[in-house]
Amino acid sequence: MRLFTDNLALVAVESDVVREMDRRAIDEFGIPGAVLMENAGAAAADVAGDMVGGRGTVLVMAGSGNNAGDGFVIARHLVNRGVEVEVATAVTGEGYKGDASLNYRIIEKMRLPMRLWQRPPGDGKTYGLIVDALVGTGLSGKLRAPYVEMIDFINGSGTPVLAVDIPSGLDGDDGSVRTAAVNATTTVTFALPKKGLFVGRGPFHAGKVILADIGMPSNVYPRGKALPRS
Fold first, then answer.
1. Containing H/E element for 108?
2. How many Å apart are CA 55 and CA 78, to the nearest integer?
3. CA geometry: angle at 114 spanning 108 and 115, to 5°?
4. What DSSP state is assigned to residue 139?
5. Nearest CA-CA partner of 163 in 192, 199, 137
6. What is d(CA 18, CA 36) in angstroms, rounded to the nearest whole number?
């Protein structure tokens, strides 16, 4: 997958625009959602691998929706590269649906170390990288338990953080924070950047922003927002 870092604010859009792109890619062009999730997770795994550099364990912190599914794909790709990975989830395996459930079951069969969230995770060990796959752009209203506690753990860990699509708790449109938000070192965002990464409190929470091309048909991109050809 191609990655971009330059002039991303110029092509940033509201979260609903990307959701409509997802819908069209799936419904009109027949691309399974699992394929888009695989592409997103694989691209983010490339970024995560560079960030951890083979030093230390990666902790993937997964919420309950498709953002968690991206995290499970990241975990699988990192393990396949020889990186030690642990996964902490906000819900039990039965709480996942659709493509997120599919990818949860894959890493479960791979016997990756997984646990339902507890504070601190495991025996209080330190990590080389934390992947924030808690909450994506579908956030509405205030965060519920255990998300605030999980975000507090991430922000207090002193560990580099990779946010998946958007730092958890950050509004994808106006960059506001209603309850709490992850302070990411790097954010890898998918298809098109979200406006909230560049306005309001977005720049503080997002860190370095990287855009990943996840293989959507060029036809679904809004006019003037297409990715560069190379």
1. helix 98-109
2. 12
3. 130
4. -
5. 137
6. 12
Three-state DSSP class for residue 105: helix
Residue 56 and residue 128 in contact, taking contact as beta carbons nearer than 8 Å: yes
User: Which CATH architecture does the domain made up of 3-216 adopt?
Assistant: 3-Layer(aba) Sandwich (3.40)
- Residue 38 to residue 212: CA distance in whole angstroms: 12
Strand 3-4's sheet: what is its strand order? 3-4, 208-212, 186-190, 161-164, 129-133, 58-62, 85-89, 114-116
How far CA 163 is from CA of 45, 67, 111, in Å, comes to: 11, 10, 24
Three-state DSSP string of 20-70: HHHHHHHHCCCCCHHHHHHHHHHHHHHHHHHHHCCCCCEEEEECCCHHHHH
Single-letter amino acid, residue 118? Q
Q: What is the mean pLDDT of residues 14-20?
A: 96
The token pair that represents 103 in the structure block? 């990818």
Query: Which pLDDT tens digit goes with each residue over 108-160?
Result: 999 999 999 987 665 667 899 999 999 999 887 889 889 999 999 999 999 99
User: Residues 6 or more apart from 58 whose CB is under 8 A from it?
Assistant: 48, 52, 75, 78, 83, 84, 85, 86, 127, 128, 129, 130, 131
Report how far residue 162's alpha carbon sits from residue 87's, in angstroms, rounded to the nearest whole number: 14
For the question of whether the overall pTM of this predicted structure is more than 0.90, the answer is yes
